[in-house]
Amino acid sequence: MITSAFKTVNEIFAFPPTLLPSTWHWENFTEVFTFQPYALHYANSLYIAVLVTAGTLLVSSLAGYAFARISFKGSSLLFLILLSGMMMPNEVTIIPNFITMKSLGWTNTHLPLILIPILGMGGVLGTFMMRQYFLNLPQDLEDAAMMDGLNRFGIYWRIALPIARPALTSVAILTFLSSWNAFLDPLIYLDDLALFTIPLSLRGFTDQYGAPLWNVQLAATTLAVLPVLVFYVVAQRQVVESFSLSGSKG
Amino acid sequence: MDIPSESSLSTSKRAAGMGFKLKQRDSLMGYMFIAPQLLGFLAFVLGPLLAVFVFSFQSRNLLTGKVTFIGLENYRQMLAGDPHFLKVLGTSLIFMLGLVPLNMVIALGLALLLARNLAGSTLFRTVFFSPIVTSTVAWGIVWRFVLQGEEGSLNQFLQLFGIHGPNWLQEPFWAMTSVVVTRVLKNVGLNIIIFLAAIKDLPKEYVEAASVDGANPWQILRHIILPFLAPTIMLVTVVTVIGSLNVLDHIILLTSGGPSNATMVLAYYVYFAAFRIYETGYASTLAVVLFLTALLLTLVQWRVRKKVVYNER
């Protein structure tokens, strides 16, 4: 059922109950690009997801490393505070965040879509996972480096980060997927068609009455989902591992 | 979480050996490292949480930007004057009561099946986990297509057996059912993975000893497997319950809270009040209720987690 729904993308307007179409209308796919600036939306989603992933990796690895390795006053308390916010439903914070963004004049831009995931709950999950990983890592390499006089940042940048590649990969996968598939925040913040991301774009394949043009819309949906599915099938073990790492502990 | 980590103990020992000045600098570095995350958290999570409380005592209009302080009026309105509120709470409860057991039963059942590594297990595993990586929008669009009244794939499939299916998304009862089932299908993979991992930890000797003693599969399930999995089941249940609060995008895509508000859960009501009628003050009041619910459930989750860790010891 799950996969067959994707297969009927190539059907035509008439809906006789056939599983395969009589002729394969490949022009449905090209129409996707003329109906809406789909390529632009694709690019939007892509660059936003890349920025969010990069930013989250940086912020969360820094914070996760510090919480795991550096002893400073209040670190446990601060970490607990971060942790407590993790389970908050998104809907609770959207109103004030929207008002903040509005007063900054950042609504209808991509800035909230980039900053909020990095600095908000998405980033916190990353911090949690990075800290978990660093806690389980033996410190010998870092101790040796510290004896040799390398400062804290150097240790982080040259030693801890390279060792942390598995955790970084997990965080990257989760963050990228989360940003790529994000629907609510773009819905609330974006008005201009040119700024849309794919999730928003997919909803736009409608006729003048607002009813969906199924054949084109499903074609667009396929285009959106296919890369993700392909990546998932290829990197399956890693993807599933990333999710279970985040779920079982958090 | 309350257990001091080994590394922080040895870190402070090292820090002590480092000399005072260096330790201070190290602490400073620590603060700087966490600064981006912490400040961001303050700005986009903690701050908004407090703001929502403040807003709930005001009447705010999102369009005009007008703000007036009205004290407890929103709360009074919500509890006494709003006929929708009670209905929304009820709908949210029904949603939760429908989703969680369904999710748990399917997840546990499938995990137990998959743990046997029968032929085709890997394929099944792939298929069941794949909805998680797809976007909610794609999921919503496909299901809206399938669940259409006249031309939807599901009804056409049922036609083959002479069954005339209802309009799945337009009739109140079926709309709720559809929302619950499609939501479960999307997220059940996650729980399956967690259960699979827990099942792997089950010592095989227990099961083998029991079957040698003549126990049938049902008895093994009831008396050995389930008690062993009980802590995990409890934990996953609470996490799933909390997750069921966060269902706004799914409902926006499938039913927009309809038909006639049959699928309007609390999260949707918050969205509706803020971005459809622009009453952000009242919406904040609703958000406070949502927050308190989540808080309560999170506390329950911590209690359960503590018990689980204790039991494991």
Topology:
The complex is a heterodimer of chains A (250) and B (313).
Chain A lengths: L3 H4 L19 H9 L2 H32 L5 H10 L5 H15 L6 H9 L1 H15 L4 H8 L4 H12 L1 H16 L3 H6 L8 H5 L11 H21 L1 H14 L1
Helix pairs in contact in A: 2-13, 3-6, 3-7, 3-10, 6-7, 7-10, 8-9, 10-14
Chain B lengths: L5 H13 L1 H36 L2 E3 L6 E3 L3 H9 L1 H33 L5 H13 L2 H11 L6 H7 L12 H29 L3 H9 L4 H27 L4 H7 L11 H10 L4 H33 L1
Antiparallel strand pairs in B: 1-2
Structure description:
The complex is a heterodimer of chains A (250) and B (313). Chain A has 250 residues and is an all-alpha fold. Chain A contains 14 helices and no strands. Chain A has helices at residues 4-7, 27-35, 38-69, 75-84, 90-104, 111-119, 121-135, 140-147, 152-163, 165-180, 184-189, 198-202, 214-234, 236-249. The longest helix of chain A has 32 residues, at 38-69. The longest helix of chain B has 36 residues, at 20-55. The radius of gyration of chain B is 25 Å and the shape is globular. Classes of the chains: A mainly alpha (250), B mainly alpha (313). Chains A and B meet through α3, α4, α5, α6 and α7 of A and α1, α2, α5, α6 and α7 of B.
How would you briefly describe this protein structure?
The complex is a heterodimer of chains A (250) and B (313). Chain A is mainly alpha-helical and 250 residues long. Chain A has helices at residues 4-7, 27-35, 38-69, 75-84, 90-104, 111-119, 121-135, 140-147, 152-163, 165-180, 184-189, 198-202, 214-234, 236-249.
Rg calc of chain B: 25 Å
Helix percentage range of chain B:
over 70%
Shape of chain A: elongated
Query: Counting H and I runs of at least 4 residues, what is the number of helices of chain A?
Result: 14
The name of the CATH topology of the largest domain in chain B is MetI-like fold
Tell me the number of strands of chain B: 2
